[in-house]
Fold:
Amino acid sequence: MTLALSVLDLVPVRTDQTTAEAVAASVELARTADELGYRRYWVAEHHNMPAVAATNPPVLISLLAARTERIRVGSGGVMLPNHAPLVVAEQFALLEAAFPGRIDLGIGRAPGTDQVTSWALRHGAGGVTDEAVERFPEYVDNVLAMMEPAGVGLSLRDRTHSLRATPTAASLPDIWLLGSSDYSARLAAAKGMPYVFAHHFSGRGTAEALALYRDSFQPSSTLAEPRTFLTVNASVAETAEEAERLALPQAIQMSELRTGRPLGPQRLVEEAEKVAEAGLDPAQAHLVDGMRERWVIGDAVTARAEIESLASTYGVDEVMVNPIGAAYAGTDPRAVPARIETLRLLAEA
Structure:
């Protein structure tokens, strides 16, 4: 089995960066992934978080696709309850028309933000958030149908109107369902769609979700067999000790997220080390230790072997890496050398 590597990017914003600088750094990361032969580059959707600049996947995708040559660019994912299905269908039809054969649409059910921001995103866009989540399967069907040439019939005022995403692309993007529970696994299997479980988020439940998806998969007109891959957080450096240092800011930040603490921009390595030296509370320390055990952290040979072992364990031929390496004080704000080094070392190992 030849293992393909891909990239997940949340466009993290460091304490020494503006949003513009963080986006510029992600452009260079995407160009590096393209040059190194990575298969795809996905950007996430999160809102009202100072540490993340990935708020609008379609805009980022257009920027990244225009600055790369070969790599597939997509969303990991668009959080569908935040958006009207027609808007999503039109955005990705246009992206596919502009970059044919290079666009992926990954769809998720979670809001990717707090309840207030989620309400603000949905206000005036077709309903409140709870309703949008409940109607998620219907919205997925609408996105799929609206991107087909025949479109979808919309019943309004006792009449059926034909509705389709315009402009019509000559081809369709690959459309994936994403999830961190068995809900999306069941839905993807029932609809015969490709599916990705968020292994990078928790590291638990992956085997069960993938088994459920594969066992209950129903072939569709677009997909004859189950199709999936693995996501994983990774920090790779010349030495394991260096990789551990570079992973610390992300680990502390994730522990803060999961214990309800306020989130700021991602710390530099030196800033994170000061926090760790001052002492984490027991809940945070337990979370940090657990995450570092589940993440891929090490030198090139060890990290590559671990990724290949994960791929074999879960029966996939592709692994999507979220490069989590932080930066040291004095790093160019428009650069992410540790994240680029992770991609380079993994590709060349």
User: Anything to note?
Assistant: Confidence is low (pLDDT under 50) at residues 124-128.
